[in-house]
Amino acid sequence: MKAKRIVFKVGTSSLTNADGSLSRAKVKEITRQLALLHEAGHELILVSSGAIAAGFSSLGFKKRPTKVADKQASAAVGQGLLLEEYTTNLLLKQIISAQILLTQDDFADKRRYKNAHQALSVLLNRGAIPIINENDSVAIEELKVGDNDTLSAQVAAMVQADLLVLLTDVDGLYTANPSINPDARRLEKIEKISSELIDMAGGAGTSNGTGGMLTKIKAATLATMSGVPVYICSSLKTDALLEAALETFERLWWDDDAGMVVDSRAPETLAVDPYRGANANMHTVEALLGAYSATGDALHLERALRITSRISEQFAAHEFRLPEHYDESWTALLDYNRDVPADAFRPFGSTIGHWLEWSRLMVEVRTACAARGLAYPDRLDVIPQHMYRKALLEGWGPDGRPGFVYTVDFDGRPVVAQRMYWVLCEAIGAAETLRESTGDASYDLDVDAFASWARTYLIERPGQWREELDADNRPASGTWAGKPDIYHALQAMVIGRLPVAPSFAEGIARRTGRARPPFAEIGSLPHRDRSGAPVGRRRPRESEAPAHF
Hints:
By secondary structure, the protein is an alpha/beta fold.
């Protein structure tokens, strides 16, 4: 699921009952799917209609009003009620939502456009889901965007979205109205929007909606001109939002011949960049495992297996060091970015933190395959442990000082000696996962050493971590600036309490009360051996190497 930033537009017809009132069941189903996509790592924006539907009955109207003033008053009441529904459902999944009301002026005025863009950027970077609607209560005809299809296209262009999804009561564009013409044929894919295509589109699909296929075609024109692909799907289908994200992944990012994903496409032409990277595929495995957990569809697991199998082959074929960069035929580019070794996203050499992360993911993939009865290569039974040990041997303190270096060359020599926060977190996750899968309690000693180093150098105070250290373990910002993300630390702190599962969320759901404390508590709580009995433990010295070094 490569599409990272997705704008969803949900029309009134997809949110209401037959009498025009708001359907809480439909809102709940939409937020369920949004939560699954959010957990899979996507940045989401929801452009939602439905304010009038949510508010008109509270003002005593028996049916949806038709007068402008009545609709504006209903929208004023309904905006709060609609947002409450979204907020309540999303908070159940620990997801923050935010309301933004826009008018055409917010897109026409440079200063207001910039302010709206900045607000949306902060919300997305903080993991919130912005919920956007036109400010119907005050917008006059001259200032109206017109419809939420157009609004969603403008928002998608503003935030440079990877995908715009228009959710409607019809599952796409037909050659005629399928509700009255049984010979209407669905158009599976549209490469170019022509005048003939526009002629096929009609008016609003229901009496409660304000848009229709014509507005969606116009919105698609706006979005694609900005380099944003558009997908139209039916709100009547179960998991429609998930299907939209997965279909786009299928069409744009998955290379079935290679069994891998492509990294990037040109925004204007969608031409595929010849560069291929292990990093994009690593995070795709995470997303595929999350999709498998959510849907139970074995296809996602099979694709995660194909990726991890190829990566394990590359690791073994290069003297047990994983190349990060490849050409379009998946030939390793061992000299890629030699002149910019500390590139933030494509550094030269091999990245120690990725060896650790891959070792954990391979265990999760093979465990899921075993549970599903899906055959996997025998090497996945040994490569994860070997990758982990190799990361310790070449990555932990090769310069005589504790901590993981960032990258090494293909002779195993350090290239970028900075210590990155996320690498340490991935090391904890890998060690905890290997302990759980192998039953080898010696991995606990590694976690102890990692935790001690983190407390000494990384953690300034509770809740405040340093992103990067130099080779002498002093605060630095040569590669990254600012404070680190939260998810690496969160995962490191709780993964020791979770069973091995395809996704982090499923592991939490299946939590079995493991005795092992999270690393933040190590040193203050009694350690337990494999039988669960408390045993004595000492706090490792800050310079002590992990047990598997």
